[in-house]
């Protein structure tokens, strides 16, 4: 009995040491960070000099990025903001051949040059994340409007970002269609999908506490 209690105590102390070590390895700070891309220079291309406003690789290289952080692009409608997880797309400087599930354009819709805009991009996937502007037929990207970051787990996604994306829009059925029951089934499926993602996130959080 006494031996078993001592054993338990040893196990608890070992666990406490592990948790303390993990905490000291954790990134500094307890919240999420908004990183202003390029710092004061922003996300701009100088067409006269044919070069980016700053060296974005070197800007990114000095920072740590975690899930739940945002990249804030202070820019204008002369550039684009494209996020991809696919290095082939990144290196190509175009999203023409990109797949929908790994590449997103965050701005657009402006019909004229030079409109000021701010684009906030949440970091929701760990690992390599790539960004570029494909404007001027890819020349902006080729001339420096491109960078890569490594997103770490950090605190994990906050509740505001851990929901799965909404299911794709489906044309409502016409009046003489008998499609209404399948629609409600697909809604149940989406809710169940959300619960599963929550479960995985819980498991990930538990694992990150233990290690
Ligand atoms: C970071 O940016 C997001 C998106 O614009 C915003 O919702 C959030 O409040 C910002 N967080 C901080 C700490 O500024
Ligand atoms: C763009 O580059 C040109 C030539 O190098 C320079 O004279 C000009 O000041 C730059 N414009 C901006 C907004 O930095
Ligand atoms: C800018 O650089 C690209 C090479 O990436 C070149 O093809 C283009 O002609 C240059 N444009 C100007 C205005 O110098
Ligand atoms: C930008 O900085 C990176 C390293 O931080 C360097 O390797 C690269 O050559 C720089 N690019 C330019 C165009 O100066
Ligand atoms: C990356 O994108 C290219 C198209 O640009 C596609 O052929 C390739 O399969 C993608 N890679 C992965 C790992 O999805
Ligand atoms: C935006 O692009 C237009 C057309 O190329 C150019 O005249 C203008 O100077 C650019 N503005 C900025 C702020 O880069």
From TrEMBL:
**Gene Ontology annotations for the cellular component aspect, listed alphabetically:** plasma membrane
**Which residue ranges are recorded for the region named Disordered?**
156-186
A GO molecular-function annotation: electron transfer activity
Give the record's keywords alphabetically.
Signal
> Phytocyanin domain: from which residue to which, for each copy?
33-153
Q: Which organism is it from?
A: Carya illinoinensis
Which residue intervals are annotated with compositional bias (Polar residues) in the record?
A: 177-186
Q: Where are the transmembrane segments?
A: none
Bias type Pro residues, positions: 161-175
Tell me which positions the record assigns to the signal sequence. Answer: 1-22
This chain's protein is named: Phytocyanin domain-containing protein
